[in-house]
């Protein structure tokens, strides 16, 4: 049985995109080396039956738990409980958010060992704006200040959308993060991410944005430099809703193709109104202009410097 897995956690609302990403993960990993797991939280029996069947047909393991199994935590915090939810055989896991697409070989990453008690994650784009003086940077700084982060600690703030972890240490990190959530819930803007940063910073190693590529980086041409393996569609809209910059039709097609292959998934794909679609088109065109203006200069150089210094770079551990 494999000792490593790629896993997703989701409530009913995110099962569809998580399933699409999980299929892509299955296509980009060795079956002998890696299992793919889709974990549902508070899923009704009819939905469990559908996704259990579809997952089995696609070499994906479907597991279902109730909120009581994760301390009545919101589903987005289920990643904190992965040591409890995953079968005991896995020594390492790659947690992946459902609003992602896998476009390259994951084995390059998953065959890399991790030191006991550590995990790998990318620096969050917010960290790259620390010290700047524009509206975006000031908003980020306000968020970091709410948790008492110094500028040095803010620059180490990581994104929790993709986490490659040593199983042995994650149980403790997750438990401590859950305790912090009880203390800081009112201050969190990104609940799971904020509390993980409060307890996990000293156990984290950095990895290339190739393994968690913020889709807005396409606005400054970084996809041609970094060659992403995992695209992360942060914020709204999502590619299963609409095709708008910074992505094109190739990002939306996987959802359409899965729908045609498995029409029983139709109830699980959200639909947006024409008015909302038009608003998203205007919003994304403005954001493309804004992000090119704010991220094409010094911040771009910070990203490139980060890539050069990342501990796990394009899937291969950097050694001295």
UniProtKB/TrEMBL annotation:
Keyword Transferase: yes
Listed GO MF terms: glycosyltransferase activity
Keywords carried by this UniProt record: Transferase
Gene3D superfamilies linked to this entry: Spore Coat Polysaccharide Biosynthesis Protein SpsA, Chain A (3.90.550.10)
Descriptive protein name: Glycosyl transferase family 8
Organism phylogeny: Bacteria, Pseudomonadati, Pseudomonadota, Alphaproteobacteria, Acetobacterales
């Amino acid at each position: 049985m494999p000792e490593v897995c790629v896993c997703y956690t989701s409530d009913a609302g995110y099962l569809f995109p998580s399933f699409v990403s999980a299929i892509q993960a299955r296509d980009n990993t060795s079956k002998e080396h890696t299992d793919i797991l889709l974990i549902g939280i508070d899923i009704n029996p009819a939905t469990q039956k559908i996704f259990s069947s579809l997952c089995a047909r696609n070499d994906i393991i479907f597991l279902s738990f109730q909120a009581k199994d994760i301390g009545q935590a919101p589903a987005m915090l289920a990643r904190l409980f992965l040591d409890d939810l995953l079968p005991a055989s896995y020594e390492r896991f790659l947690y992946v958010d459902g609003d992602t697409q896998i476009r390259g070989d994951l084995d390059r990453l998953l065959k890399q060992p991790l030191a006991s008690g550590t995990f790998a994650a990318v620096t969050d784009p917010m960290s790259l704006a620390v010290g700047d003086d524009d509206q975006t940077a000031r908003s980020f700084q306000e968020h970091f200040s709410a948790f008492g982060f110094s500028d040095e600690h803010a620059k180490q703030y990581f994104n929790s959308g993709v986490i490659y972890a040593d199983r042995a240490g994650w149980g403790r990190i997750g438990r401590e993060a859950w305790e912090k959530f009880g203390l800081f819930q009112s201050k969190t803007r990104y609940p799971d991410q904020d509390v993980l940063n409060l307890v996990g910073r000293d156990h984290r190693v950095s990895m290339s944005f190739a393994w968690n590529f913020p889709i807005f980086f396409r606005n400054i041409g970084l996809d041609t430099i970094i060659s992403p393996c995992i695209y992360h569609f942060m914020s709204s809209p999502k590619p299963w809703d609409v095709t708008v910059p910074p992505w094109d039709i190739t990002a939306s097609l996987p959802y359409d193709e899965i729908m045609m292959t498995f029409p029983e998934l139709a109830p699980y794909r959200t639909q947006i109104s024409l008015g909302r679609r038009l608003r998203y088109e205007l919003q994304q065109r403005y954001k493309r202009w804004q992000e090119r203006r704010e991220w094409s200069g010094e911040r771009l150089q910070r990203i490139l410097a980060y890539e050069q210094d990342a501990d796990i770079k394009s899937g291969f551990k950097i050694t001295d």
